[in-house]
Amino acid sequence: MPNLNIVLGVGGGIAAYKAALLLRLFTEAGHQVTVIPTDASTNFVGVATWEALSGRPATNNVFDAVDQVNHVRIGHEADLIVVAPATADLLAKAAGGHANDLLTTTLLMARGPVLFAPAMHTEMWAHAATAANVATLRSRGVHVLDPAVGRLTGVDSGPGRLPEPEEIFAAAMALVAPGPAQDSPQHDGAEAGTAPEASGPLSGLLAGKHVLITAGGTREPLDPVRYLGNKSSGKQGVALAEAALAAGADVTLVHAPLEVPAPAGARLQPIETALELRSATLAAAASADVVIMAAAVADFRPANISTGKIKKRDDVADPVITLVRNPDILAEIVAHRAAQNQQQLIVGFAAETGDDEADARTYAQAKLRRKGCDLLVVNEVGPGETGSERVFGRDSNQVEIIALDGAGPVLAGGSKREVADAVVRVIAGRLGAP
């Protein structure tokens, strides 16, 4: 990736100190960063810190360096603008098109991608005004991450925590990653592309369609207390359900335990185990026009479930747990469609890792052929470049959508909702939506 000209806007919240870590990630990656701290933010982190870490002047005053016309120039020259933390006040100003300081004028002049990483108290994030402002920004093609869930200022905890700097960095880099047509190896001679109409509205794209989505990570009980599980939070599946609802679909969400609320407007069917997921999915798929298998399904389950809690005792040998294979639900859905001669679009998900024998993409292509679904949404999991988890539990994602018919792969990145929107647009294109 070439060196970028990045603007880092810093809002007036306690999480401003984390923006210093984000700045370091940008500069260590070789990018030039101009920091624009709001006046309120300097109560938390001073201008001297930003200038020392960036090696450039840091100001929010439109009357500094007037001869350079900064309120116009900086936004025009920026390859990327990231605002972290984005307070409720900053989101409101950006949605309203305010231009009363250097940061807001720069946002109005932006020609490249803009990413907001919100941080505020839970009630502020949940307030109808903030929700409306976020929806307005997203409708304009601005990228807004969902805040993390965790400890806030004081003793409170909930949604509103600034995502970790590594997560913001990954989401930002996904927005400016070189296009796959330039950098990505091609599949079977097909051309790669980006998600069609990446910032266009979803309204009506899936009107009249029944979309079945699975989400979350299944839990396979060992005893009444313990279970085998995985790291899936269900965030991507929930985002897919929200995107499908926004596109006008009738949505059924079959979900394992989730770390985020299920969307209003979907028919919900909670499950826990892979066998429960199989039963619910096969039943709902009978009437579905689209099936999206985003759940992280356990490949194995314990052969025997203890009726009592397994005790750890010095006079008893450690237990040996025998596992048996769970059914391949995605393959069953594909086989059922063929048997019923059903007109149905089936989308699988693959969380892949590479090894000494092949990379993640090669394994994903093999999985697509083996499963026989129409589309496979692939993300590479495991530790990222900064050592943090790439996908599980995060609010951002970067995927490649590959097709069984050999059509060019589509890359999508950003928040999980933005990835979900891209998947919905690809599905709508397959169904012949305009």
TrEMBL record:
<feature type="domain" description="DNA/pantothenate metabolism flavoprotein C-terminal">
    <location>
        <begin position="206"/>
        <end position="428"/>
    </location>
</feature>
<comment type="pathway">
    <text>Cofactor biosynthesis; coenzyme A biosynthesis; CoA from (R)-pantothenate: step 2/5.</text>
</comment>
<feature type="binding site">
    <location>
        <position position="299"/>
    </location>
    <ligand>
        <name>CTP</name>
    </ligand>
</feature>
<feature type="binding site">
    <location>
        <position position="349"/>
    </location>
    <ligand>
        <name>CTP</name>
    </ligand>
</feature>
<dbReference type="InterPro" id="IPR003382">
    <property type="entry name" value="Flavoprotein"/>
</dbReference>
<keyword id="KW-0479">Metal-binding</keyword>
<dbReference type="InterPro" id="IPR005252">
    <property type="entry name" value="CoaBC"/>
</dbReference>
<keyword id="KW-0288">FMN</keyword>
<feature type="domain" description="Flavoprotein">
    <location>
        <begin position="5"/>
        <end position="171"/>
    </location>
</feature>
<keyword id="KW-0511">Multifunctional enzyme</keyword>
<comment type="pathway">
    <text>Cofactor biosynthesis; coenzyme A biosynthesis; CoA from (R)-pantothenate: step 3/5.</text>
</comment>
<feature type="binding site">
    <location>
        <begin position="327"/>
        <end position="330"/>
    </location>
    <ligand>
        <name>CTP</name>
    </ligand>
</feature>
<dbReference type="InterPro" id="IPR036551">
    <property type="entry name" value="Flavin_trans-like"/>
</dbReference>
<keyword id="KW-0456">Lyase</keyword>
<feature type="binding site">
    <location>
        <position position="371"/>
    </location>
    <ligand>
        <name>CTP</name>
    </ligand>
</feature>
<feature type="region of interest" description="Phosphopantothenate--cysteine ligase">
    <location>
        <begin position="211"/>
        <end position="434"/>
    </location>
</feature>
<comment type="similarity">
    <text>In the C-terminal section; belongs to the PPC synthetase family.</text>
</comment>
<dbReference type="InterPro" id="IPR035929">
    <property type="entry name" value="CoaB-like_sf"/>
</dbReference>
<keyword id="KW-0210">Decarboxylase</keyword>
<protein>
    <recommendedName>
        <fullName>Coenzyme A biosynthesis bifunctional protein CoaBC</fullName>
        <ecNumber>4.1.1.36</ecNumber>
        <ecNumber>6.3.2.5</ecNumber>
    </recommendedName>
</protein>
<dbReference type="InterPro" id="IPR007085">
    <property type="entry name" value="DNA/pantothenate-metab_flavo_C"/>
</dbReference>
<keyword id="KW-0436">Ligase</keyword>
<keyword id="KW-0460">Magnesium</keyword>
<feature type="binding site">
    <location>
        <position position="309"/>
    </location>
    <ligand>
        <name>CTP</name>
    </ligand>
</feature>
<feature type="region of interest" description="Phosphopantothenoylcysteine decarboxylase">
    <location>
        <begin position="1"/>
        <end position="210"/>
    </location>
</feature>
<dbReference type="Pfam" id="PF04127">
    <property type="entry name" value="DFP"/>
</dbReference>
<feature type="region of interest" description="Disordered">
    <location>
        <begin position="179"/>
        <end position="200"/>
    </location>
</feature>
<dbReference type="GO" id="GO:0004632">
    <property type="term" value="F:phosphopantothenate--cysteine ligase activity"/>
</dbReference>
<feature type="binding site">
    <location>
        <position position="367"/>
    </location>
    <ligand>
        <name>CTP</name>
    </ligand>
</feature>
<keyword id="KW-0285">Flavoprotein</keyword>
<dbReference type="GO" id="GO:0004633">
    <property type="term" value="F:phosphopantothenoylcysteine decarboxylase activity"/>
</dbReference>
<dbReference type="Pfam" id="PF02441">
    <property type="entry name" value="Flavoprotein"/>
</dbReference>
<comment type="function">
    <text>Catalyzes two sequential steps in the biosynthesis of coenzyme A. In the first step cysteine is conjugated to 4'-phosphopantothenate to form 4-phosphopantothenoylcysteine. In the second step the latter compound is decarboxylated to form 4'-phosphopantotheine.</text>
</comment>
<comment type="similarity">
    <text>In the N-terminal section; belongs to the HFCD (homo-oligomeric flavin containing Cys decarboxylase) superfamily.</text>
</comment>
